[in-house]
DNA sequence: AGATGCGGGTTAT
DNA sequence: ATAACCCGCATCT
């Protein structure tokens, strides 16, 4: 488990590009999608960096060498991804310093958790250490309810009560974590930027005081937010706690500043900025997106290609200037469906001009990515000037439509669309051969080259070291300074792996060759956390093997499935039916 | 008791 | 149709 690669959140960028906001709006960080497209488009000669790119929803995630795993980061923040060893105990337990609770996303393959925020004092009191009350909410609903309303543990606080400060760091919703077990790795992806401090550990003295483990007489031993300092009550720890909290607060401020006042975007790496590219409901200060108010029902968030793009492209096409940039129709138009992760996998569309000009076929409430935003990535459209007062509001008649896969005009990278899932056990037999089909995913992908511009800029986005005050927030990872996806080769070639194959759940299908052996290496038994072993793994293994050969074979016809169930995907049940994989 | 995960169900958009 | 939540249950620590 010796991690060869050390990473911090800062070396992560990410792909949370499609976010349905609470009010129905959607944040589209098209920039990232484009970057992803770039990755997808690269052929097998592409650099290692590209191989680092993956999404928790990818039909096939990279294979990682045993020595290439990330060090566990319990304080992941921002849009980050990590790959942990399947033997990493912390990863296996899906641990997080943040108070993350299970969120039922009705996808048994990907565990989703959402942040509960922090418990704060209703009086916003200050402890002797100078720190604020910042406790970890109980994960258990019942326990958490008991926490709320309790007296503030700060002896200097009068009348203060503990109350939840909910996390709103992800488009106005709590930050979410996703866990997926695949092969010998555990894939972790976080979405959103916590808009609150790190909560004290459960065993902190303050926490104990607050929740009865320690009598209130011990109030004077407040130590602030120092992990591991519980009960120490030393001056040193007090200072440390205060310093830590102050730093966190500074970082929180920094986040907002980055999102709102980056007058000189080039001072921040794209990755760095992207990390803060959280989308709020446009009522949140964190939100970096502009949006269109749909007079009928929804308001559409138009993620500015994120500050990510702003920081680099500074395109003339950038909406800045407080003007509504008329959307154009660039040669390369990428469309993205705006369904949220884990349920309806994002679908990347590299639309043809025809498709690009096609009017959105779906509900007018669907969000659209402004082409001008996307065009910002086009070499010829680069310009100068970054403007924070972005109002990249394009009109629906000139935006990129988010279409279903059925409207794909060209081979495109596409992600699993759970809405396409269907239980085949009783109906479909699109899966040829002896493989017992159960569930298939519409995951046609492509390897179509994208503009070299994006390729050229890949390094900028993905391999640039980003140091900022945000690092202060990553205290537990300060030593792992942005090694970025430097180690590589071990990553799956996305282009190969996705080359025109249709994805299917192999957890229920016989897998030829070595995949079987791989399967046997995995621990499916007993553990409470074993259920997230990727049911796709077999197929991934197959694809991995296939990709090792020269040319990808022509893709089999993508399965066309219909999802019958309301919204549940009982892969486990399907699996059990074939008794090839245990739960 | 609480953490954790599962999954049926509801609600809002 | 989609995703956020709520809830009860089961298992484990």
UniProtKB/TrEMBL annotation:
Keywords: Developmental protein, DNA-binding, Nucleus, Transcription, Transcription regulation. Residues 547-583 are annotated as: Disordered. GO terms for biological process: dendrite morphogenesis; embryonic crystal cell differentiation; glial cell development; negative regulation of crystal cell differentiation; plasmatocyte differentiation. The keyword Signal does not apply. InterPro entries: GCM (IPR039791), GCM_dom_sf (IPR036115), GCM_large (IPR043020), GCM_small (IPR043021), Tscrpt_reg_GCM (IPR003902). GO terms for cellular component: nucleus. GO terms for molecular function: DNA-binding transcription activator activity, RNA polymerase II-specific; RNA polymerase II cis-regulatory region sequence-specific DNA binding. Residues 563-572 have a biased composition (Basic residues). Coiled coil: none annotated. Residues 573-583 have a biased composition (Low complexity). Gene3D superfamilies: GCM domain, large subdomain (2.20.25.670), GCM motif (3.30.70.3530). Residues 52-211 form the GCM domain. It comes from the Eukaryota. This is GCM domain-containing protein. It comes from Drosophila willistoni.
């Amino acid at each position: 488990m010796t991690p060869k690669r050390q990473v911090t959140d800062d070396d992560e960028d990410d792909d949370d590009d499609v976010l349905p906001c609470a009010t129905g709006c959607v944040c589209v960080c098209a920039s990232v999608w484009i970057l992803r497209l770039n990755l997808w488009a690269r052929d097998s000669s592409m650099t290692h960096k590209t191989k680092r790119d993956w999404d928790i929803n990818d039909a096939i995630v990279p294979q990682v060498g045993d020595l290439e795993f990330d060090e566990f980061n319990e304080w992941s923040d921002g849009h980050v991804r990590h790959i942990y060893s399947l033997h990493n105990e912390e990863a296996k337990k899906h641990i997080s310093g943040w108070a993350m609770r299970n969120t039922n996303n009705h996808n048994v393959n990907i565990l989703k958790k959402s942040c509960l925020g922090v418990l704060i004092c209703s009086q916003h009191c200050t402890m002797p250490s100078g720190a604020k009350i910042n406790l970890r909410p109980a994960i258990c609903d019942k326990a958490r309810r008991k926490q709320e309303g309790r007296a503030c543990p700060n002896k200097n606080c009068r009348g203060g009560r503990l109350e939840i400060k909910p996390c709103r760091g992800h488009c106005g919703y709590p930050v979410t974590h996703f866990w997926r077990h695949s092969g010998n790795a555990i894939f972790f992806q976080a979405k959103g930027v916590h808009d609150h401090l790190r909560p004290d550990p459960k065993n902190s003295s303050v926490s104990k005081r607050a929740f009865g483990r320690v009598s209130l007489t011990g109030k004077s031993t407040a130590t602030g937010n120092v992990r591991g300092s519980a009960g120490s009550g030393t001056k040193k720890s007090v200072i440390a706690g205060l310093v830590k909290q102050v730093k966190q607060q500074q970082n929180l401020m920094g986040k907002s500043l980055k999102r709102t006042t980056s007058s000189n975007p080039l001072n921040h790496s794209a990755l760095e900025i992207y990390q803060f590219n959280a989308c709020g409901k446009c009522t949140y200060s964190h939100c970096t997106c502009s949006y269109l108010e749909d007079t009928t029902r929804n308001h559409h968030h138009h993620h500015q290609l994120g500050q990510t793009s702003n920081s680099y492209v500074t395109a003339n096409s950038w909406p800045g200037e407080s003007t509504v940039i008329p959307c154009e129709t660039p040669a390369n138009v990428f469309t993205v469906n705006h369904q949220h992760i884990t349920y309806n996998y994002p679908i990347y569309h590299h639309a043809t001009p025809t498709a690009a000009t096609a009017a959105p076929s779906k509900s007018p409430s669907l969000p659209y990515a402004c082409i001008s935003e996307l065009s910002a990535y086009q070499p010829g459209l680069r310009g100068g000037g970054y403007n924070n007062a972005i109002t990249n509001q394009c009109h629906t008649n000139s935006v990129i439509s988010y279409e279903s896969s059925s409207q794909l005009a060209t081979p495109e990278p596409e992600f699993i669309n759970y809405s396409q899932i269907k239980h085949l056990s009783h109906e479909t037999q699109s899966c040829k051969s002896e493989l017992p089909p159960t569930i298939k995913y519409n995951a046609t992908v492509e390897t179509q080259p994208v503009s070299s511009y994006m390729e050229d800029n890949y390094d900028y986005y993905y391999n640039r070291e980003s140091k900022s005050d945000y690092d202060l927030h990553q205290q537990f990872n300060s030593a792992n300074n942005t090694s970025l996806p430097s180690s590589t080769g071990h990553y799956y070639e996305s282009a190969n792996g996705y080359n025109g194959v249709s994805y299917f759940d192999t957890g229920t299908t016989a897998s030829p060759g070595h995949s079987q052996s791989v399967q046997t290496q995995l621990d499916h038994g007993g553990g409470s956390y074993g259920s997230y072993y990727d049911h796709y793994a077999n197929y991934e293994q197959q694809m991995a093997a296939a990709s090792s050969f020269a040319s990808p074979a022509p893709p089999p016809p993508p399965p066309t499935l219909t999802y019958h169930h309301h919204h549940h995907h009982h892969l486990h049940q399907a699996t059990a039916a074939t008794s090839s994989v245990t739960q």
